[in-house]
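User: Show me a protein chain along with its predicted structure.
Assistant: Here is one chain, sequence first, then structure tokens.
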Amino acid sequence: MINFFNEDIDLLQLPFPIIKRWIKNIIANFDHKTGDISFIFCSDNYLLNINQSYLNHDYYTDIITFNYNFDKVVSGDIFISVDTVRLNAVEFNVSEQDEFLRVIIHGILHLLGFNDQIEIETIEMRLQENKAIEYFKHSF
């Protein structure tokens, strides 16, 4: 089951039922099953607190993913900073919806085993993000 929550912000106006179907299709395309996935949309400060408390990182970020997978069942909590995503949309000259889609699928890709710690991983992650966004635009 995929759920969307908001912590210290107003709920976003995104097409959540369509996004759920998209995520399930992406997961299935990687030969995995959808488990319990929660997206928690929050502010920069809320996510900074999580980053400091759980990861010992003292910086802002757009997303933090906690992986609870079991075998090929994809499960986890994905925290997304609405503030940073909106700033990134402006910085990268893309729509807010496209940037939210990018960050949402970025978290799913982490749960599927993709990483972005080194350059070659980052390149593959961006390729997969772009493919998923194109799939969203042409299928839903």
